[in-house]
Amino acid sequence: xxxxxxxxxxxxxxxxxxxxxxxxxxxxxxxxxxxxxxxxxxxxxxxxxxxxxxxxxxxxxxxxxxxxxxxxxxxxxxxxxxxxxxxxxxxxxxxxxxxxxxxxxxxxxxxxxxxxxxxxxxxxxxxxxxxxxxxxxxxxxxxxxxxxxxxxxxxxxxxxxxxxxxxxxxxxxxxxxxxxxxxxxxxxxxxxxxxxxxxxxxxxxxxxxxxxxxxxxxxxxxxxxxxxxxxxxxx
Length: 235
What we know:
This protein is α/β, with parallel strands linked by helices. 48% of the residues lie in helices and 14% in strands.
């Protein structure tokens, strides 16, 4: 192959790699710009991951007793959260992390092992930087638009749940747990369409209400939240 063609091919490949590496760079820079205006309080609970986190507009109202940080960015895969971990996770020094990501990995035709292994790397990194922080993995959700992928997602969920159980404790303290939201989203063996918006992928307010109930219980059990008597009586 002539030298000039080799150089052109190399240039194209280099720029493709650069574009992929920096696909979410502008979004991350927007987070950093927000931080410069008002840096989030330490000891907050950080919610990080893909669009199901990004679109959680009622997050602060759903958990009014604690300070929350939303660092969801749409379309992200587990590898993307891992890539930006020090810029959108560890710098905040949160007391707990609620992690939702993985279904875009499967939708992007990655092998089931990809989100599992990348989440394991995420945990390894976070534990080095934040050994006292507890991480909760929220299971990949079943949705009507991706129901044909559910078998693979469910298997990835099972593998991640197993990893969480086997690696939950550090110095006799639980710092890793798995939260299953799939059961509350399925009715009669299929995803409950009533909790999704028109695209049948993302959730409406009722969908987030179901997530809130499950995640809230976990945070209360682990003493990150204190359930007040009025809310308990309402239930």
